[in-house]
Design a protein that fits this description.
mainly alpha, Fumarase C, Chain A, domain 2, 2 domains, 3-stranded antiparallel beta sheet, 20 helices, 9 strands
Length: 511
Amino acid sequence: MTIVLKPGHVTLQQLEMIYWTGEPVRIEPSCDAAIERAAARIAEIAAGNEPVYGINTGFGKLASIKIDAADVATLQRNLILSHCCGVGAPLPENIVRLILSLKLISLGRAASGVRLAVVRLIEDMLESGVVPLIPEKGSVGASGDLAPLAHMAAVMMGQGEAFLGGERMSGAAALERAGLKPIEFAAKEGLALINGTQTSTALALAGLFRAHRAAQAALITGALSTDAAMGSSAPFHPDIHALRGHKGQIDAGTALRGLLEGSPIRESHREGDERVQDPYCIRCQPQVDGACLDLLRMAARTLEIEANAVTDNPLVLSDYSVVSGGNFHAEPVAFAADQLAIAVSEIGAIAQRRIALLVDPALSFGLPAFLARKPGLNSGLMIAEVTSAALMSENKQMTHPASVDSTPTSANQEDHVSMACHGARRLLAMTENLFAIIGIEALTAAQGIDFRAPLTTSPELARAIHAIRAVVPALEEDRYMADDLAAAGQLVASGALSASINAGILPGLEG
C-alpha cells in the first residue's frame, strides 16, 4: 500500500506508519504544478546575472563568490560530494526511509525550487527499496543536517553507497538494479536537498514513537507491579487527578484503573491492610508517567509541525521572490529531543524502583527474596534487577540537554548551532535501554503475581501475563537469563505487550 501525503498536512499517524511499516510514499499529484513553477523561477535566476545565495554563489562563508551560469551544475555536484563527511555506523534503514519521506514533504511545499524530476526520483527510490547509506554522525543541526543529507543526495547522483534488499553496494549499482537513473542536479537542487532538518527530525520522530511504545508498556508493567506488591489502587482515583488537572496524569491514572479493574488480588487486601501508603514508585505512577506522557505529547506536536515544514534555504516565497533565511536551524527539534530524553529517563527510573521493590523482601509484602523459589540455592532475579539499575543509570547520563551545547562552525558564519542530530540520535540507545528495563519489570511483576496464587490479577493484566509467558516461562529455578531478558525486551519493543491490552485503555499521543 502506498502512503500518499499532502505536504503541510501530514499527520503523526502517517509518519508513524512510515517508520514502523516501511510502505512506499508519494506526495499528492496536486503539488506538481506549484513545484514546477518554483523550479522555473530558480532557473530564471540562474540564467541571469544578479547573484542570489545558493543559486549562483558559493555557500556559507563563500557566499560572496559569484558562480558563472555554465558552472551551476558543477557547483551543485561539488557541493554534495564535498559535504559527504559523515562518520560512524549507517543509520537504520527505517530511519533513512523516514528521512527520504520528510524530504519529500518539504520539497512538496513548492518553496525549494527543485524540479519535479527530483521529487519523482525520491519517490521511486522509496518504492523500489533503494536506501542511501547515511553515516550516523556529522551533523550539528544547522545549517541543516548537511553531512547526512549529502550522503542521501549523493546516491541520487549515482555516487556514495546504498542498500538494496539488505545488500550494501555503490549508489550507482543500487539505482541501476532498481531500474532508476541518476540525476544531474540543476541550480539550487543540491542545496535544497542538504539544507534541512530531516535527519534530526527523523531521528527524533523515531525516538518519539519508540518512547511512546515504551510508555504504554510501562503502564502495563506498573499495574502488574502494583498487584504483585499488593499495592493500593486508591491513589489512582479519578478525583485526585482531576483536582490537579494535568492531562497526562489524568490519562495515566485512567489507564492504571482500567488495567487493575476486577483484580482478585486487589480485593483480597482492600480491608485490613496495615500499610497506610505505598512507596512513591507505586503510588505516584500517574504523576510521574503522566508528566512524561505530557512531554511526549508536547514533543509530538513540535515534530509534527517540523515534519511538514520547509527547512532549506533560500526559499521561493508566495510572490516568487527568493529570500535567504534560517529555517534550517533545528532548535525546535533539539528542544523536542531533550524533552524526550528526560521522559525516557524518568519512565525507566520509576520502573526500576518498582523492580527493586519487588525483589526486596523488606518491601514486597511477603514475596521471597529476589522472587526465587528457593532463595539462597537460587539467586532468582537478583542480577536482572542490577542490570535494570545499570541501564537506568546509563540513561540518566545521556539525558544532559544537547541543545545547550552550541559551538561555532564554518569559519564563524554558522556561529550558533542546535546539536539536534545527535541529541535525537541518542534516543535510539536510550529507548533500547528503556525497552530492556520495562521488559525486566514485566518478568519481575509476572513472577510476583505467580506467588500470589491462588489469587489472580485482573482480566486485562492476565492478558499481559499471557503475552509475557508466551515468550518467557516462569522462573522455577535458576537458568541462563540473558535470553529471557532479550525476549522480554523485544516483547516491549515490538509493541506486542501493549497490543495484548484491549484498545482504548492505554493513552495515545493525541492528548
